[in-house]
Amino acid sequence: MELWYTELHTKGSGICFKVKETLFKKHSKFQEVTVLDTEDYGRMLVIDGLVMLTERDEFIYHEMMAHPALFLHRSPENVLVIGGGDGGTVREVARHKAVKSITLCEIDDVVLDVAKKFFPNLSTQLFSDNRVEIIVDDASKHIKDKKENYDVILVDSSDPVGPAENLFKRDFFESLKKSLKPDGIVVLQSESPFYHLDIIKNVRENLLGAGFDNVLFYWAHIPTYPGGVWCWAIASCTYHPIKDFSLEGKDFNMELKYYSPEIHKASFILPEYFKRALSEVLSFEF
To answer: 279 labelled as ligand-binding?
Structure first.
């Protein structure tokens, strides 16, 4: 008998994967964590019934989570990754030689254990790079006493339900701003523009309300995510992600699969339906 995993994106549509084997399933203190071995996409991490990553396409998400901000910032020495216990974002941050410290704040230690056992290609830097410090804690608590600590903060959270719900609220964004240095940059995964425009607009409004001057969105195709597209918010009081983007003094000698200087610029060109929903944000010219 064939085994299939289905994730519904609406009541009438979703995505299916043929499963070879269920490798792991456990209810942690916060969520249900599952690892499936699929026929077409390799190992898949599922949290509370939602696909977080697959071995086949995770590189797109993680490269786009990390590199736009790290190549934009002139000197990204201290980086905080919130969530991202699978290690993929830390892996990409660690490619940057200018980075001196990487703090990972993950609320669920089960995710860390699963990453180490089942996703070594993602998690190697978590446990082998001496620049990395792992903190198992609620990120909203971790950053409350931090002031101007970080150059870049990458919020690699799960969807805005359960333990990640607080990571999409204005008071959390205000704490992010306080914990950034004056020229700091924050990036947040911001859901699918095809299905989640209401969430995306709330992210924009809350970032602007928290005091960030430049709030823009960029996007990429990710086959296993709802609608096949995903987006990120990037916010700063100093840097504009198009006007201030330059590789001068940067080492781009990396073996990346998706991100490039051309992709960086192109990813901020949004389709009309997305632009209309965010018309207040897009006041610049390409």
So the answer is: no
CA distance readout (Å), 206 to 181, 201, 213, 228: 19, 9, 12, 25
Region for 42 from its dihedrals, namely left if φ exceeds 0, alpha if ψ lies in -120 to 50, beta otherwise:
left
The CATH architecture that domain 58-277 belongs to is 3-Layer(aba) Sandwich (3.40)
| CATH 2.40.50.180 holds for 3-54 | no
List pLDDT tens digits, range 55-107.
999 999 999 999 999 999 999 999 999 999 999 999 999 999 999 999 999 99
3-state DSSP helix/strand/coil percent for the chain, to nearest 5? Answer: 30, 30, 40
Strand partners for 42: 38
Computed over its alpha carbons, how large is the radius of gyration of the chain? Answer: 18
Residue 116, SS3 per DSSP: helix
pTM of model > 0.90: yes
Q: Is 125 annotated as a binding residue?
A: no
Looking up tokens 């989640």, which residue turns up?
Answer: 196
139 labeled part of a ligand binding site: yes
Is 128 annotated among the ligand-binding residues? no
CA triple 135-189-236, angle to 5 deg: 90
Q: Is 137 a catalytic residue?
A: no
DSSP 8-state assignment for residue 134: E
Choose the catalytic residue: 40, 137, 156, 198: 156
Sheet holding 229-236, edge to edge: 132-136, 101-106, 78-83, 150-156, 180-189, 229-236, 214-221
pLDDT tens-digit series, residues 252-283: 889 999 999 999 999 999 999 999 888 754 44
Angle among Cα 213, 214, 217 to the nearest 5 degrees reads 145
Domain segments of the chain: what residues?
3-54, 58-277
Collapsing DSSP to helix, strand or coil, 236 comes out as strand
Task: State both tokens at 265.
Answer: 């610029």
